[in-house]
Structures are given as structure tokens and as C-alpha cells.
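User: Second chain of the day. Same drill as before.
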Amino acid sequence: MGGQESGGQAAGRGEGLAFLDCPEALILVLGSFPSLRSLEKGEYYGNERNHFWDVLGMVFDAAVPADYAGRLVLLAQRRIAVWDVIAACERKGSLDKDIAAELPNPVLDVLASRQTISRIALNGAKAAASFLTHVAPELGARAPAMGVVLGWRPASLGGRLIKVARLPSTSPIPTRGCRCAADKVGAWGAFLASAAES
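Assistant: Same format as last time:
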């Protein structure tokens, strides 16, 4: 899920978390695959060091509840659904670079049943790469630049327009352009906050 904390678990096949639905969702956030900590807790972005919840709080100028149930309420209020591109894979630890033999989630099926979703936020490079490989190959093999919004009209959805953007990974691992949660707020905010206007 946007490449979270590393871990020493031996390589093995694992399954991800269930689709986190939201009534009348406008946005679907897609990560890559949950970290070990997230899987242990059964919670999206369950690694306490991951920036996801902090970024959401800053984007929406909202206090982020400490408990997971409260965080789900925050997502529902903002009409955000959450899932991962990858349903199952082989991986040692929690790093995206170690993901192998991935099987995708049926993202198109969810989009077909959730007509209100008009935006997909891809949480990091691995989520974007797997999305293009398994879900939207018609968008090309190369992930878009950070923050660039693509217009996607899947034939299986009758040509319905869905805006897709690759956003900075909320992983706590620093990158050249994003060392902390505050560095990621601009790109995330521009894409999420404008969903209600589309």
C-alpha cells in the first residue's frame, strides 16, 4: 500500500484487505498492497508511521481520530473509498519492490457497481504501475508524472469518464521530493479537494 515499513517476514503468499466501501463515494484511493502492520491489524494504513491519515487531515483541515472506527467516519464524510490494486502476492517484508506474482483486485467490477466514483487516486509508483498493468493498460505502460491527471474512459464502463492521478506515496520512506507528510499535501489536496467540483 504505497510501500510501507520494511519487515523481516519470510517470503510467502499473502492476501490483502477487503474493499473499504463508502456510500456515494466520489473518490477511490488505490494503494499497492498492505504493509505487514496493516495486515496484522486488519486496517488500511495501519502502520503508525504511514502518512496517509496525516495527509488526509491536512488536506481537509480535519482532526484525525486516533481510533480506526473514527477514521472510517472521516473517509465516509469525505466520500472516499479505499482499496488496493493487488489482491494477493508473494512478498518478503512490506516493501513494494519485493512484491512478486501479484494478482489484481477486480477494480473494474467495483467501478461498475459504484457509479458515483469519478476519481481514482493512485497511492505511489507501485500502485500506479500495477493499475496500468492490470486495470487500465489502455492508458499506456508508463505511469504518469506525479500529480498529472489522466482522463480514463473504460469501454467496459460505457466510456464513463474517470479522472486518474498518481500521487506521492504516503509511505514513511523519504523520497527526493517528499520527505514528510507536509510535502505530499499539495498534490493530494489538489486532486481530492476538487472531486466535489467535477
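The first strand starts at residue 12 and ends at 15.

User: Great, on to the next one.
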